Amino acid sequence: MRTGIATVCLSGTLKEKMQACAIAGFDGIEIFEQDLVTSPHSPEEVRKMAADLGLGLDLYQPFRDFDGVTPDLLKANLKRAEAKFNLMERLGMDTILVCSNVATATIDDDGLRAAQLAELAELAGAHGVKVAYEALAWGKYVDDYEHAYRLVEMVDHPNLGTCLDSFHILSRDWDTAPIEDINAEKIFFVQVADAPKLSMDVLSWSRHYRVFPGEGQFELAKFMGHVVRAGYTGPVSLEVFNDVFRQSDTERTAVDAMRSLIWLEEQSAQWLAGTSAAEGTEGAAASRRRYPMELATLPKVNEPAGFNFAEVKADDTAQLEKLLGQLGFGFEGRHRTKDVQLWTMGQARVIINEQAASHAEPAIAALGFDVDSPVIASARAQQLKAPVVARKVQADEEVFQGISAPDSTEIFLCQGSPDGTAAWTHEFGEGQEHASSAQNAVIDHVNLAQPWQHFDEAVLFYTSALALEPQPFAEVPSPSGLVRSQVMETSNGAIRLVLNLAPAQQAQTARKTYQEHIAFAVDDLVATAREARKRGLEFLQIPANYYEDLDARFDLEPGFLATLKELNLLYDRDANGEFLHFYTATVGSVFFEMVERRGNYDGYGAPNAPVRHAVQYDSLHRV
Ligand SMILES: O=C(O)c1ccc(O)c(O)c1
Ligand SMILES: [Mg+2]
Question: Which residues are CB-contacts of 439 (< 8 A; sequence separation ≥ 6)?
Fold first, then answer.
């Protein structure tokens, strides 16, 4: 698959964008006209820069508001087009994107439109230029890719074809199957973008909320599958208008973009293999051979089987030790060679990192995931351009394959074991042991604060490299703003991550004000809470108003309600089961949660999140 990206996706100058695209490994780019017009470099210099960087200049765009106009306007439009064709010759470019008219079209007549596009194609041909006509989702008369293609067929000129843009097609819910009926020679260009499903006018949605494939909710593998089955072999190019990406680090966004295409390529191959298997052909190999576009695949991984460990960092290590001890964790000792301690409760393993915490680093410094094969999982992550974590190891120590997540949490790929034990724990053992609680516990979920610039990148990272499934995102009110919350989990819930995007005011100051936490699941939360209280644990204090509201909503048995209130427990219930939980006070920027899932409750007590945020806000602002 030939990969491409439009310069409009990135921040920076044209030169910076081109350099970032080359470093990220793109085959070619689309030059967005604004980027050229505002560049100090001449077209000849841009052409040379691209050649030196090994980047193809695959598309010049956009050319607007050409078709369906009065004769006077047509004349002016052809003159405007000719100027661009001359410019493209200097750039060494041969394909231009022409969008369906959104502004100046006054005549809704396919015959007239075809005649005008024929004139444009004829002029383009004289300059050796190909015109890719694209139906914008908000085009005045042409807003549908099949309509655009009908016009291309009517004109039947070698210099006129169509451009398929996934956003314009999927935002309008157009059926993508008819893409297969398009003559591949008439598909001059393919643009891909994903987007969250939002209810707003399609122009605003397109100009501000497009994201890279895998970061939104469109069915892009299916779209691409139809494109591949049509026989298309040209560039597959990202065209993402996004307010955040346009102000983020250029090189980093280009790498995020490249990751999305590598992943989409694999997903498209899988979609094709799935559909051809369903149709009774011979699966992946056969389907790949049948189509002219080559689709690369990646090392395959299953979902992780569970958390192996979590590692936390705080300035006040003693305070962390105290909290874990009060919750019922036992101290297993200090590492032989590193400044870290191991604490366990049943199968929940927590490492306290004694190195000084930096405000720029996440409080949850590392997570271990159990995978079938750490080597294969690491190979996959690296092919998806995940940065590798270098960790010093001594003889006899477990070698972990680690990758760095977008928020700089280190993810270690660990060999899972059937009995839930971990081979590396024997490296700990120096120091006094404390008896842990008799209760079993497992890591239930981990809540990670995401810097605002890297939120979408994180969703794609965990989806593509670690096979987690994004759930629909939620917005949780807090006293300092709305917290965007995105659950990423495995299908059986063995791994549950909650990515939280802090309100701007918090995200821009230190991470300190925005907290991360680890939740542990136990079998009997009331017993755990009572034991913890005996050991002197400071619970997050829940206001009495909460319990009145809870009673109104759920009509609880009075004794049970009194127990919840007495122990500062939060409660939720849905059709699948019940959820009980409590929170500890915060140390540095990390705190802990204890949960009990009853029945098949699969959520996170979302209705209680605003209460937690408000109480934490209150305790932060009181001191
Ligand atoms: O928003 C626009 O105007 C616009 C321009 C060119 C494109 O290819 C596109 O998809 C949208
Ligand atoms: Mg487009």
Answer: 328, 345, 346, 522, 523, 524, 527, 528, 531
